[in-house]
Specification:
The protein has eight helices and eight strands; from the N terminus they run αββββββαββαααααα. The strands form two sheets. The protein has a four-stranded antiparallel β-sheet. A four-stranded antiparallel β-sheet has the order 2-7-4-5. The longest helix is centred in the middle third of the chain and has 27 residues, at 109-135. It is α+β, with helices and mostly antiparallel strands.
Length: 185
């Protein structure tokens, strides 16, 4: 897969986007509402939370500092958002309407290429999570998550990490104990 240089897109958000500060627990997008906004996260952290029909919350994703955040299905399909996108620390964003980002991608072949690569990477990330949920053990999923995002261990509660990898908090606790015994933290 092609390497991605997002500096031009970040610059576009910084120059054209509306700067917003969201406090901890503020929502960028609410499940069930239409969202046509995309943002560059200059500083902060977000979680994607899907609430099921019984009121149970499921952590389905994260966005971190120096990345982008959106409820992409809502933007792409003009449908209600499938999940909440919530700040989990005070966060600084540069927000654009999705339509403006789409026009940016249409401005030149290089911008179109960038949009294509972003879409490809989102697909690969989503497909990998799907495959991992079927083929990897809870311990493998936990270790992969901690390798990719080590800050989660200190910043997010055990219950939330468990939800993200699709297991109970007790399972994550047992995994941590096992790893600690074997000298892996």
């Amino acid at each position: 897969m092609e390497e991605l240089d997002l500096s031009a897109m970040k610059r576009f958000f910084l120059e054209q986007g509306e700067r917003r500060i969201l406090e901890k627990q503020d929502y960028f997008v609410r499940q069930g509402e239409r969202s046509g906004r995309v943002a560059y996260v200059e500083d902060g952290m977000f979680r994607f939370v899907r609430t099921d029909t019984k009121g149970g919350e499921h952590i389905v994703g994260y966005s971190f500092r120096d990345s982008f955040v959106a409820e992409y299905t809502s933007c792409l399909c003009s449908r209600p958002a499938l999940a909440d996108v919530q700040a989990i620390v005070r966060s600084t964003l540069y927000v654009l309407p999705y339509e403006k980002l789409r026009r940016y991608w249409e401005m030149s072949p290089e911008h179109q290429r960038l949009g294509r690569i972003v879409a490809e990477q989102l697909f690969v990330m989503t497909y990998r999570r799907l495959m991992d949920s079927y083929c990897c053990t809870p311990e493998e999923r936990y270790m992969d998550l901690m390798r990719r995002y080590p800050e989660l261990k200190e910043q997010r509660p055990l219950k939330e990490i468990a939800s993200f990898i699709g297991v109970t908090p007790e399972t994550v606790s047992a995994i941590r104990k096992k790893l600690l015994k074997s000298g892996i933290s």
